[in-house]
Amino acid sequence: MVDNAATTSEGISRRTVTKAMAWALPAIAIAAPVPAFAASGDAPTITPGAACKAPGNSCAPIVKGYSVPATVHNSSDETIYITAIVINVNTSGIDFGLNPIPALPWEVPAGGSLNVNFNATSQNSANLDFELGFSVTWGHEADGSDTEHDPIQVTVTVPATPPDCCK
Predict the structure, then answer these.
(1) Long-range CB contacts (within 8 A, 24+) of 152-157
(2) What phi and psi values does residue 126 have, to the nearest 5 degrees?
(3) Per-residue pLDDT tens digits for 73-88
(4) What's the Cα-to-Cα distance from 12 to each of 3, 20, 96, rounded to whole Å?
(5) Over 60: is that where the pLDDT of 21 sits?
(6) 155, 125 contact by CB (below 8 A)
(7) CA geometry: angle at 81 spanning 59 and 122, to 5°?
(8) 97 pairs with which residues across the strands?
(9) What is the SS3 assignment for 11?
(10) Using an 8 Å Cβ cutoff, are 70 and 133 in contact?
């Protein structure tokens, strides 16, 4: 292919340099704020296990309700704390209270994991099929004063199964 563009021996003009600088400056301004949240490390990962139901008083300390075992893993180099959990998805039609085990806050050391239970208690432990979701607040302070991190969503399906939380 033949290039028909005229060439000169003058090199790059001042106007071309000025145009290039005008386009480069906004990229620097936009990128500057990004590192603020990166310094606090990765969010923990929460891997739920199979949900189950706990009938009556047979599975103390889970009394009438449903349990979701989970593993919280902290891949960062700082200790993290799970400081609050809110049930925000509930397709069961049953009102739930919350009884996390162990009690909050959950401390997860740097590079470590913690096995926990998200427990939803109620006046009913019917054999239902539904989704149950939890919004999990975390940070680097046990008292919950570190609020710069987005909550983590954990949603699980509770299958229509016989009771098995006591196993």
Answers:
(1) 152/43, 152/44, 152/46, 153/88, 154/46, 154/48, 154/68, 154/70, 154/118, 155/89, 155/131, 156/48, 156/51, 156/68, 156/131, 156/132, 157/51, 157/129, 157/130, 157/131
(2) -60, 155
(3) 999 999 999 999 999 9
(4) 18, 11, 70
(5) no
(6) no
(7) 30
(8) 121
(9) coil
(10) no
Contact (CB, 8 A) for 64 and 121: yes
Q: Which token pair is 41?
A: 């490390």
Instruction: Dump pLDDT digits (tens) for 124-165.
Output: 777 888 899 999 999 999 999 998 999 999 999 888 766 777
Q: Which two tokens stand for residue 148?
A: 């710069």
How many beta carbons lie within 10 A of that of residue 140, not counting itself? 15
16 vs 112, residue with greater confidence: 112
For residue 72, give Cα distances in angstroms to 2, 28, 61, 75. 63, 37, 21, 10
Gap between the Cα atoms of 60 and 69, Å rounded: 15
Q: Whose CA is closest to 80, among 146, 154, 150, 155?
A: 146
Encoded amino acid at 112, one letter: G
Mean pLDDT of 95-124: 91
